[in-house]
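User: Small ask, check this?
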Amino acid sequence: MPELTCTVPVPRTPQELDQAIKRYRNTDLHGYELFCQWQAICEGSMQQDFSEPGADTVPGEDSY
């Protein structure tokens, strides 16, 4: 089975990722094109930094 090579750019920023997801949902893709779009979104999502906030607290929390 030949290896598939996708040329869809991987989203790098959260904004690009949002746009890619909207395009994925609103476009009638099939087969190879569908897989390539899905793979780019997955790779872009995995590369995002969704780290937990450090010591973020609610302002005024000490006053309660």
Remarks:
- The chain has one domain: 1-47.
- DSSP finds two helices and no strands in the chain.
- The CA atoms of residues 42 and 49 lie 14 Å apart.
- The first helix runs from residue 14 to 26.
